[in-house]
Automatic annotation (TrEMBL):
Entry protein name: Endonuclease/exonuclease/phosphatase domain-containing protein
SUPFAM superfamilies noted in UniProt: DNase I-like
Lineage: Bacteria, Pseudomonadati, Pseudomonadota, Gammaproteobacteria, Oceanospirillales
Family matches, as Pfam families: Exo_endo_phos
UniProt keyword annotation of Nucleotide-binding present: no
Record key words, sorted: Membrane, Transmembrane, Transmembrane helix
Origin species: Oleispira antarctica RB-8
Length: 726
């Protein structure tokens, strides 16, 4: 400390005193100037009230800028700078997806970073924040690994991924960087719980779409494209409309393949398929047929995740309707989409409007193909649970709804009747075998009587139908129409709620004698595993079969033909379905209850051969719930009956398009059959499975808003129509 810091200023040397005084005066002048400015500012605030608002706004803007800067700093700390691949949490999307070795059919891949928090950067390829509560992100083409462009069997990893973030405010073509958690959602690798997101650039060139061709050789090929842009430029076919919980009506989806696929046991012997499966001959042609559908099957989405959409943009922007349907067999060539996945399915989410996809619809068959040589036409049709309620009289018919298996309301029943009548009248058969009629007898208010009356309104009196009445269900004059009490029980044909029936046109054919019934009481017996005698035909599972002999009206014959009466037999059948299990062992190839169906077929062959001479023509028809190469059909073939579905003389033009009457989860096949003995074969001129049901969507069924009183989707099985020339 110096001595001068302690002396009064007036004792300082003269020059120092003058300097100090100048500094003091300068300080006072500066202070006065600031005070004047503050007073002037205060005065101006009182004279201009809006000045306070501007000052407040400036303060808020300043606070917002400060806050945004803080947020940006916080975001930078979380995700780093755009383009920084060295950031501690940064991962390429391909690393998150992981490379997978080839797997033929199994879809069980998970991310190596499951549940971890990662930073990714990529280009928004499709924004579906509203429709799917998220968007798809893909890295540009420079990130594609060498393996991604190599052979199909190499290890590859997708460079695209789905971001589950419903509050996203992003646009297609933006490059963004974000922090999120890796998750698996029903087989889909995705990022969720986005904690930070920043837009790095806009109007960025999208990654190029990968070319995808069906069929693939392994599901690993699709997994390597999950979340990425893809394009398909090949001839494709609509192969399924409602498989595995999805469907046109459920989520606005349909399936495409390179070709239609058939049930393996429709084309190959079921026992041979089992042998191949048990011996694990993976390279076998039969084994490959079993698996090929999985490798040739993609769902096409409408672009919305809404269940039961009100508008379905297929087959075009006009929307799905009864007059503008999408059907199995329709064709398309090109589609550009994002490859998504859910469960066992890979799904194409169109990049443009779904209705812009060009689908070439195929013409509906207006009528079945019947030989012009035929003078007798026999048809069979499963009428899909035709239940008519419990009508009290001809004027009070809207009673007894909902029914246990059929229509839920009288209005639905009316539409069901109209659709069935449209189909049956167009077939115009002389004899009709029916399955899945309500088993309620033969009185004037029975289901078969109702259907016959409705059908006869379409024809003149000489062309109208009658129905066969079995001995177990003979009509009773006291029948009041009620379906309860002893009379109702007496009229039942078997134990099931449904039964078979026969319609015939009396101007063309006449029944000879009473109809014979195959059930548990009339069946041959066998010894079970406990050496107990059991009926081969178990009517606790199978519906009793009818065997009726008909004579032909002479007016329809060549006058030069023999004088002897021409007759034939028709056997109508409905075997146990594959749906619910029976007590027998479950057959993984042929479905539930195969043993029961096989024994029923054995019983039917024995029943016919005992009652009918081998010189008399016999035609077996019905829903046998078995495909053409399964045990029940093979048992009938062994009993001397020829399956007309495989009769080469009739099917010369169907080499590349086998018969089918039913569609199930992308597989086509025959559950409905016609078989003839040797005496009948020379008279057969044509056979046609009229595709009015199996290829149509269930949305056209009688109980939907789309339903129209036409033949299409009148049932779930196609009718079978046989042309015969006696």
């Amino acid at each position: 400390m110096t001595l001068t810091r302690l002396l009064p200023f007036y004792l300082l040397p003269h020059s120092l005193f003058i300097h100090s005084l100048f500094c003091i005066l300068l300080y006072l002048a500066f202070s006065f100037s600031n005070l004047s400015q503050a007073e002037a500012l205060q005065a101006s605030q009182f004279s201009h009230p809006t000045s306070n608002k501007h000052t407040s706004k400036n303060r808020v803007t300043k606070n917002r800028v400060t806050k945004n800067r803080a947020t940006r700093k916080q975001t930078l700390r979380k995700i780093g700078f755009c383009g920084d691949t060295q950031f501690k949490r940064y991962k390429n999307i391909s690393e998150i997806q992981g490379a997978h070795t080839a797997s033929i059919v199994n879809k069980r891949w998970t991310s190596p970073f499951i549940n971890q928090w990662v930073v990714v950067e990529g280009i928004v390829t499709l924004d579906k924040s509203k429709e799917y509560q998220g968007f798809w992100l893909q890295q540009d083409d420079s990130f594609r690994s060498v393996s991604n462009a190599s052979s199909r069997t190499s290890q590859r990893a997708s460079t695209g991924i789905f971001i589950y973030h419903k509050r996203a405010t992003i646009k297609r073509g933006q490059r963004i960087r974000l922090l999120a958690q890796v998750a698996e959602y029903h087989g889909l690798t995705e990022l969720k719980r986005v904690k930070a997101l920043t837009v790095c650039a806009s109007n960025v060139t999208l990654p190029s779409a990968s070319l995808l061709n069906l069929p693939i050789t392994s599901l690993a090929e699709l997994e390597a494209l999950e979340g990425m842009r893809v394009r398909i430029n090949q001839n494709l076919v609509v192969s399924d409309l409602f498989g595995a919980g999805y469907g046109l009506g459920n989520y606005g989806q349909f399936a495409i393949s390179s070709r239609l696929h058939f049930q393996p046991s429709e084309l190959e012997n079921a026992q041979r398929i089992r042998f191949v499966k048990e011996h694990e001959q993976i390279n076998s042609q039969i084994k490959s047929r079993k698996n090929i559908k999985k490798l040739d099957y993609l769902l096409v989405d409408d672009g919305y995740s809404v269940r039961s959409p009100k508008f379905i943009p297929f087959p075009n922007n006009k929307g799905f309707s009864a007059d503008n349907p999408l059907r199995i067999g329709d064709k398309l060539k090109k589609i550009s989409a994002i490859l998504h996945s859910y469960g066992e399915h890979y799904i194409l989410i169109p990049e443009s409007q779904a209705g812009d996809i060009i689908i070439n619809t195929q013409p509906r068959p207006k009528r079945p193909k019947i030989s012009v040589q035929a003078n007798i036409v026999v048809a069979s049709m499963n009428v899909e649970n035709y239940f008519n309620g419990s009508p009290l009289s001809h004027s009070k018919r809207n009673v007894g709804f909902p029914t246990t298996r059929g229509a839920k309301s009288y209005q639905h029943f009316v539409m069901q009747t109209q659709k069935l009548v449209a189909a049956l009248a167009t077939m115009n058969a002389d004899v009709v075998a029916l399955m899945e009629l309500e088993n309620d007898g033969y009185g004037e208010h029975s289901a078969i009587a109702d259907l016959t009356r409705a059908l006869n309104k379409q024809f003149s009196i000489d062309q109208q139908y009658r129905y066969i009445v079995s001995k177990l269900g003979e009509s009773d004059e006291k029948d009041s129409g009620y379906k309860t009490g002893p009379l109702y029980k007496k009229n039942l044909l078997g134990q099931d709620e449904i039964s078979v029936g026969i319609l015939y046109r009396s101007s063309k054919v006449e029944p000879i004698d009473a109809v014979s019934i195959l059930d548990s009481t009339s069946s041959d017996k066998y010894h079970d595993s406990r050496e107990r005698m059991q009926a081969l035909f178990n009517d606790g599972y199978n519906r009793p079969s009818l065997l009726q002999q008909f004579s032909i009206n002479r007016d329809d014959f060549d006058k030069s033909s023999a004088d002897e009466e021409q007759t034939f037999y028709l056997a109508v059948n409905h075997f146990k379905s594959k749906g619910r299990p029976c007590r027998s062992t479950i057959d993984t190839i042929q479905g539930n209850c195969n043993e029961e169906r096989t024994r029923a077929a054995l019983a039917l062959g024995k029943f016919i051969n005992k009652q009918v001479a081998d010189t008399i023509p016999v035609l077996i028809m019905g829903d046998l719930n078995s495909y053409s190469q399964e045990d029940p059909l093979l048992a009938l073939v062994a009993a001397g009956f020829k399956n007309l579905n495989t009769f080469n003389t009739l099917n010369k033009n169907r080499a590349n398009s086998p018969f089918f009457s039913y569609s199930f989860q992308g597989y086509l096949g025959n559950l409905d059959h016609a078989l003839a003995n040797k005496a009948m074969l020379p008279f057969i001129r044509s056979i046609d499975s009229w595709h009015i049901n199996s290829v149509e969507d269930a949305l056209l069924k009688y109980d939907t808003a789309y339903a129209e009183p036409d033949a299409y989707r009148s049932s779930d099985h196609d009718p079978l129509v046989i042309g015969i020339q006696f």
